């Protein structure tokens, strides 16, 4: 993809607008005791972009996503979001700032319906608490109605109307992944983090998920950062790719550059991938 890079952004080959920097990771180092999961990594994520993080198993990708979403606080480095340095925050505070995520292993309430699971994605946006709901019924009811309408829009968008009342535990894997995406979208995030959204899916399910990710990006303007092992998917979907290996960044750029990057090719040689 030939792009005229600038600080304001650029237009992609398929006509999408990439804006200025939304999130910047500066010299991030993360240790678990003696294990260095991330060593001095810097990269940025731009508004409207689909940004992939790839690398062999144990490279530090999930750790990086956990730093972005506030689950881990790095020992060194700075996280900048929307032009401001982010102080150490709890994950729910990060979520309130407009960052939502899905997990490598699906994290849904199996006994609850699809609709109710997606509704939990709106919790960080709910203004009234229980006491207010008791005292100020009108406002709480109005709020509830708005939340339900927003959830219904997402259900339509992701084409899961037919399972809205079904307990999540009864769904096949691919649909559970779609419900997880729906729950993350219910928070109306500015930045959506997807941890291996296609893992364990068959070809048809992967194609569906790809389409939904592109549609979310296109129609809601959501910036997306994703970890994915399927190289075909990564190269098709993403605008730019960060490559990690043993906790270090060994590549960063558009898919065409990454494909021909020798350090990246070497890191992948002899490593098995799905
Ligand atoms: N909570 C933790 N405690 C101790 N070590 C951890 C923890 N989380 C990750 N690590 C270690 O940090 C390194 C990076 O792990 P991480 O899960 O981030 O890699 P990854 O690239 O996401 O791997 P995969 O593709 O297998 O999911 C590994 O050596 C891992 O064992």
From TrEMBL:
Stored InterPro entries: AAA+_ATPase, ABC_AA/LPS_Transport, ABC_transporter-like_ATP-bd, BCA_ABC_TP_C, P-loop_NTPase
CDD domains reported for this sequence: ABC_Mj1267_LivG_branched
| Taxonomy, superkingdom | Bacteria
Q: Which GO terms describe its cellular component?
A: plasma membrane
Q: Known Pfam families for this protein?
A: ABC_tran (PF00005), BCA_ABC_TP_C (PF12399)
Q: Which residues form the ABC transporter domain?
A: 23-271
Q: Which Gene3D superfamilies match?
A: P-loop containing nucleotide triphosphate hydrolases
Q: Does the keyword ATP-binding apply?
A: yes
GO MF term (any one): ATP binding
Keyword tags: ATP-binding, Nucleotide-binding, Transport
Asked if the Swiss-Prot or TrEMBL record annotates the protein with the keyword DNA repair, the reply is no
- PANTHER family, alphabetized: ABC TRANSPORTER ATP-BINDING PROTEIN, CONSERVED COMPONENT OF ABC TRANSPORTER FOR NATURAL AMINO ACIDS-RELATED
Q: What is this protein called?
A: ABC transporter ATP-binding protein
Species assigned in the record: Falsigemmobacter faecalis
Q: What is the lineage of its organism?
A: Bacteria, Pseudomonadati, Pseudomonadota, Alphaproteobacteria, Rhodobacterales
